[in-house]
User: Which sequence fits this backbone?
């Protein structure tokens, strides 16, 4: 039986095992998928050991997406653009890294939620692996402006420079956003896991503005509560993105993309 897992720290809360079990059942496939907690300083050694044990593939979550990219013997275009991986595919001698976060996000925004990116002013909060994974796909949708904001300017400037061949990204600090308005604000920080949000100026949402947190469950609550208080017309957590990026990963491993609507509805229920 092919074995897969999500690697992270913490990872006990992950819904990925349930999602992939549902995908496999819907397609009549048999596989094993579990959550494995791995400390950052143990990732390289653990991936090598798991390869030797014959595991077929992995998802990487916080805090391993950027470190995992450096441990792959090859990477997809999406992973190269992101500088981060969330999906590992077994090769004879190591791991091929891919990043399905951007595809999963856009599928959730466009198909599930009916949110338009083209021609809109879009802001991404955070400059870690989660943010890096979604920027190139967002650029490809043709927003009027795509800004990335962080507490300090160095990471946004570095990311904007690296992705310059793909389009223009405006690097910002959180506090320098004062006076700007955005149609879509995406929280790609991990602050919600500790019950916090980034320190942000007020009145960032344009009329009809949408707030989206890449986190789901309790980790998304602080940002979404803040967004409602700031006048966002619509808010959503990232559960749909989780399911859609998982479907993309499943397709990379198994050669078929499962239907997602019933799985997402089951999780929401």
Assistant:
């Amino acid at each position: 039986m092919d074995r897969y897992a999500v690697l992270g720290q913490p990872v006990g809360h992950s819904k990925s095992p349930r999602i992939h079990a549902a995908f496999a059942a819907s397609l009549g496939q048999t596989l094993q998928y579990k959550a494995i907690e791995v400390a950052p300083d143990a990732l390289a050694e653990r991936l090598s050991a798991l390869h030797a044990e014959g595991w077929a593939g992995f998802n990487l979550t916080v805090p391993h997406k950027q470190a995992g990219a450096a441990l792959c013997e090859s990477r997809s275009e999406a992973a190269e653009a992101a500088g981060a991986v969330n999906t590992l595919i077994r090769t004879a001698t190591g791991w091929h890294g891919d990043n399905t976060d951007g595809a999963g996000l856009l599928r959730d925004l466009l198909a599930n939620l009916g949110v338009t990116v083209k021609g809109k002013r879009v802001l991404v909060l955070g400059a870690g692996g989660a943010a890096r994974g979604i920027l190139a796909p967002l650029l490809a949708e043709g927003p009027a402006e795509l800004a990335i904001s962080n507490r300090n300017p160095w990471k946004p400037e570095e990311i904007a420079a690296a992705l310059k061949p793909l389009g223009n990204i405006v690097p910002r600090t959180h506090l320098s956003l004062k006076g700007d308005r955005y149609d879509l604000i995406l929280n790609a920080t991990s602050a919600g896991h500790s019950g916090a949000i980034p320190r942000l100026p007020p009145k960032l949402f344009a009329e009809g503005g949408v707030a989206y947190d890449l986190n789901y469950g309790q980790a998304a609550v602080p940002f979404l509560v803040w967004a409602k208080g700031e006048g966002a017309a619509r808010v959503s957590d990232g559960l749909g993105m989780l399911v859609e990026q998982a479907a993309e990963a499943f397709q990379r491993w198994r050669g078929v993309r499962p239907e997602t609507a019933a799985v997402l509805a089951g999780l929401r229920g």
Q: What stands out?
A: The first strand starts at residue 3 and ends at 8. The chain is about 35% helix and 20% strand.
